[in-house]
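Section handout 9: paired folding examples.
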Amino acid sequence: MLFGDTFHTVRSLLQPNVVLIFLSVALLFVPTPWELFTSNRTSQHDAENIIDQTPFVLLPEPVKPLDSEVTRLLEAAKRMKDSKKIEKADKLFSQAMQFAPDHPELLMQYAEFLEKEKNDVVTADSLYSKVLKRDPTNTAALLRHQINLPQVKAIDMKHYRAIEAKKYALSLIAPSNLAFRRAKREFYFKLIYHNNAIEGNTMTLSMTRSVLETGRAIGGQSIREHNEIIGMDAALHFLNGTMLAPDNPLEIQTILDIHTKLLGNRVVNII
């Protein structure tokens, strides 16, 4: 009996202690609220670092197969090239480009043709660049572009120096030179004529010159066409008189003023 009482007494004393010990040990493995917060921020920061360090890769755009007409032209161009009929092959390539101007396969073949058969490195390199813009992973286009780039830069520099030499030679001519003034005036008439002709104006070069020099109307021509000539003349005078100044920035109001002068006497609502 004594043994039984002693056993119950020890058990009653140990049970709370066992519970407390168990809770104490469990708390050692349970993170505190601060640890949860910092752990969550650390995980988020690590994830952001992984995202930042992941390289950004441009995926090529999906390429549609060439249609039957373009394929026929391309095959014909290849046959002409193999037969050394370079001009005919060039015309066939140009026709195919009108149907599929952005297709990588056609661009690559035409670029290789221009580079090897016609020695037109500049145009070929522009086509290689067009392929790379659509598909940056195209190794063939990238390789040809890297090989041709120094030669293209040299050609561009040669043209730039030629333009600079002509500009310098032009600057040596005195503004009072009669031949120079006559050439500038004739160029001015041609500039107005061609700009209006592109837009459908039926006035000839001699008619355009007559309207600008005499200010008189041409019989049989519409008022609209006369106003287009007068408006272009006013716009060019406005540009030469105001926009060539270095301290005159190009603003929206300036563009609207050019537009107003270009329209002449016509009233157009600008949306």
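Moving on to protein 2 of 2.
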Amino acid sequence: VTEPFWQAVLNLMGESDDVLKLTGEAMCQEAAMEHALSTNNDMVVFTIRYHLVHLYGYMESYTMGEDMFQQMRVKPKSHRGLRCHFVSTSLDFFTGLLWCARYQQSGKTVYHSRAKKMIRFMKKEVDRGSVIHKPLLQLLLAELMSAKEEKKKKRVDELIRAYDEAIDCTIQCEVPHYEGVANEKAGNALSSYDDVAAKRYYQRALVLYEQWGAPVLVEKVAQKLKYLDCET
């Protein structure tokens, strides 16, 4: 069960041939999944899929993320006992990001409905006193605002306020990797409307990812900055 976690870490460190595949020094994804399925080891199956969802989220590979989500729905009851608090929180967050992104890409109302459902769930968790849900909720709210505003002229000031609130929450909760995600998402949302603001967020994301020890994410953000510089 620990091998998928270690391989995911190695992937983000750039120590694998394919960041979106849990194959490398720690494990072979195909062999591990085949063995887990043949022995009905739901824990290993869930753990592999759980870490893949995170990798797809960090790398913004949302089509692959949606495919994985559909696979995880095949035997939802078998996963229920494996979803401890920190596991379910991060999984729900990356699932929410997935639905916001797919809504922005496609404009389909089914994705908007799924994103809203996840946001309602997170609001309930915040109302119950969950501290870690607050920054994740604020970021999903900002992402959904960005996706909805894609259909018309963006209200840049409102978007900046929404992302800044999410970023402030990540700082208060001391979750620098989510702070990096929030800054990167803010840069994405503003990249077509305010180059100066977008660069500021991207530069902060780059620093946070570097401090977190994820050079793969550093390079991803560096490419976005390079693209902005070419456009201006």
